[in-house]
Amino acid sequence: MRIAYLGPAGTFTEDALGEAAPGGDYERLRKATIHEAIVAVERGEAERALVPIENSSEGSVRPTLDALALDVGSVTIVGDYDYRVRVHLIARGGVELEQVEAVLSHQQPLAQCARFLREQLPEAELRSVSSTAAAVRMAAESARPWAALGARAAAELYDCRILREGVEDAADNVTRFVWIAPAGTATTGSGPWKTSLVFSELGEDHPGALVHALAEFADRGINLTRIESRPLRQGLGRYMFFCDLEGGESDPAVAAALAALRAKAESVRLLGSYRTG
């Protein structure tokens, strides 16, 4: 099996993949972006992709949501995995904390470590790059006293040292990853069922439109574990709504709620119905 994920080597996603699929009996396909990792499954370049979808501190990962809702139509979520994130401040040998001029990382770790950066490196420039591993590589290759926020594996890969361990603001910093597979693939987990969906365009704008839509779940005793809005990319004031709910799509109550939602929303797309864990 070939699994696509956000590369290069040394990213948190690679660490998460090692935990979520121990043993390494698969081929790794590193991609430059989350979007490319998901598209690789749609194009048949990979049988699975592992991508982050939400973080306990910073919320949803927008590239994943947008790719699933707007760009890639023939894939499905078949499982998820919670990964405990430990972010380290990394620099090449000889660079000390008080010398750091710039801190590089992916936008998510920069946000997750905002308090540490504000208190310990208030004068340092913050630079967002494509991945944490790329940030460590750039810090390692720079003649300037740069540092990066990244994984321990990246520090080892690029022969750097860890200036400070565990600099994330929240001690329980967890990122939820989802397994992406071709549409029609069966779930592989063993835990309780979860369903993820996105809907939009609730008819002519009127007070309570979203409340009435969500009532289809509440009235049937279905627990929504997450809901978030994202722009629909069709002008101001138009949104799509992502939901995670407890239960599988074949559960009678869930099936009835989805049917009722489809009668109210112009677009309802099931992103996946799968077992967790």
List keywords for this structure.
single chain; about 280 residues; alpha/beta; 6-stranded mixed sheet; 5-stranded mixed sheet; 9 helices; about 30% helix; globular
Please report which band the strand proportion falls in: under 5%, 5-15%, 15-25%, 25-35%, 35-45% or over 45%: 25-35%
Q: Compute the separation of the termini in Å.
A: 20 Å
Count of DSSP H/I helices = 9
Strand-pairing-aware structural class: alpha/beta
Number of strands: 15
What would the principal axes of the Cα set say about the shape?
Answer: globular
Spans where pLDDT lies below 50 across 5 or more residues: none
User: Secondary-structure element sequence?
Assistant: EHEHEEHEEEHHEHEHEEEHEEHE
Radius of gyration: 20 Å
- The share of residues in helices is 25-40%
- Main beta-sheet strand count, sense and barrel state: 6 strands, mixed
The average pLDDT is: 93
Structure write-up:
By secondary structure, this protein is an alpha/beta fold. The chain is built from 9 helices and 15 strands. The strands form 3 sheets. Strands 1, 2, 3, 4, 5 and 11 form a 6-stranded mixed β-sheet that branches. Strands 8-7-9-6-10 form a 5-stranded mixed β-sheet. β1, α1 and β2 (27-31) form a beta-alpha-beta unit. The two termini are 20 Å apart.
In short:
29% of the residues lie in helices and 34% in strands. It has helices at residues 12-20, 34-42, 62-71, 107-112, 114-120, 132-141, 152-157, 209-218, 252-264, and strands at residues 2-6, 27-31, 48-55, 59-60, 75-84, 88-91, 102-105, 125-128, 146-150, 161-164, 174-182, 193-200, 224-231, 239-246, 267-275. Strands 1, 2, 3, 4, 5 and 11 form a 6-stranded mixed sheet that branches.
